[in-house]
Amino acid sequence: MQVGKYAKTVVAALFAAVVVAKSAVTDGLITPQEWIDIVLAVLTSLGVWVVPNAKRSEDLPR
Questions:
Q1: I want to staple 16 with a disulfide (CB 3.0 to 4.6 A). Which of 2, 23, 31, 41 is the partner?
Q2: Any domain includes 60
Q3: pLDDT in tens, 3-49
Q4: Model pTM score
Q5: Which letter does DSSP use for residue 27 in this model?
Q6: Which domain holds residue 10?
Q7: Is residue 38 situated within a structural domain?
Q8: What was the pLDDT predicted at 26?
Q9: Is residue 62 part of a domain?
Q10: Structural domain tally of the chain?
């Protein structure tokens, strides 16, 4: 398995999870707005997965 192939998605999902978890645990209750934030974070991570990675800089013409 090539880690680089999924690195962008893993980083996006990790940061989304951290942001949503931070807001959800501040009061110990998940509100409807926080559920919307969770859904948006998941959709954003999926959007990052759909967009292909850019070519490496040494492969690009100058």
A1: 41
A2: no
A3: 677 787 788 888 888 888 887 778 888 888 888 888 888 888 888 77
A4: 0.59
A5: S
A6: 3-50
A7: yes
A8: 82
A9: no
A10: 1
